[in-house]
């Protein structure tokens, strides 16, 4: 045999081996993808089954409650019962929306009064007592609550507040 034909045959064999390896790796990758897809599909089916079971449990727990309710002695309709609840919720929402907060601003070294939901500061005072007096005026005028924080930013309860103006009135 000629020596150059032997080299060509060796190269052809090497190329075939490389092609076979490439095909095998592709097959391995595909099988791994299929396995992961099956696993994720199994997980999603488990999750959906769990969610269905939870909803069924909720429905089952709600149904006996509805059946075991005793009729009320008063002859009030459901609409009459729901109206006070709706009014209470509206007043709660209003009070939740309108809460004043007294906070110390370290950069400006001022006590600032902010209203929940508002972007701007309502008022700023040099001392905490001045800010508290102003907040009390605002809260009395608008019939809202106010919350005060300490200089370090921790919450201070309203029940612990004693203003100089309040002690003079007593």
- The gyration radius over C-alpha positions equals 37 Å
The number of distinct structural domains comes to: 2
- What is the mean predicted local confidence, pLDDT? 75
Name the poorly predicted regions: 159-163
Gross CATH architecture of the largest domain: 2-Layer Sandwich
**In terms of structural class, how would the helical and strand content be classed?**
alpha+beta
Q: What is the level 1 CATH name of the largest domain? A: Alpha Beta
Estimate percent helicity.
55-70%
Widest beta sheet: strand line-up: 3-2-1-4-5
Task: Tell me the fraction of residues in β-strands, as a range.
Answer: 5-15%
How far the N terminus sits from the C terminus, by CA atoms, comes to 122 Å
Account of the protein in words:
The protein has about 170 residues and is α+β, with helices and mostly antiparallel strands. The chain folds into two domains: about 1-65; about 90-170, 2-Layer Sandwich (TTHA1013/TTHA0281-like), CATH 3.30.2390. Helix content is about 65%, strand content about 15%. It is built from four helices and five strands, in the order H-H-E-E-E-H-E-E-H. It has helices spanning about 5-70, 80-95, 130-140, 165-170; strands at about 100-105, 110-115, 120-125, 145-150, 155. It has a five-stranded mixed β-sheet with strand order 3-2-1-4-5. The chain is elongated and about 110 Å long. The N and C termini lie far apart (about 120 Å). Residues about 160-165 have low confidence and may be disordered.
């Amino acid at each position: 045999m000629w020596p150059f034909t032997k080299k060509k045959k060796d190269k052809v064999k090497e190329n075939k081996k490389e092609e076979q390896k490439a095909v095998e790796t592709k097959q391995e990758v595909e099988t791994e993808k299929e396995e992961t897809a099956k696993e994720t599909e199994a997980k999603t089916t488990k999750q959906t089954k769990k969610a269905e079971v939870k909803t069924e449990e909720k429905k089952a727990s709600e149904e006996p409650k509805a059946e075991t309710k005793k009729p009320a002695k008063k002859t009030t309709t459901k609409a009459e019962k729901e109206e006070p609840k709706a009014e209470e919720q509206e007043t709660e929402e209003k009070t939740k929306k309108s809460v004043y907060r007294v906070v110390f601003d370290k950069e400006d070294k001022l006590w600032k009064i902010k209203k929940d939901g508002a972007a701007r500061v309502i008022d700023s005072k040099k001392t905490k007592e001045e800010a508290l007096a102003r907040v009390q005026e605002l809260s009395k005028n608008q019939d809202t609550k106010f919350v005060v924080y300490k200089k370090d930013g921790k919450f201070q309860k309203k029940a612990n507040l004693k203003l100089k103006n309040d002690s003079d009135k007593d």
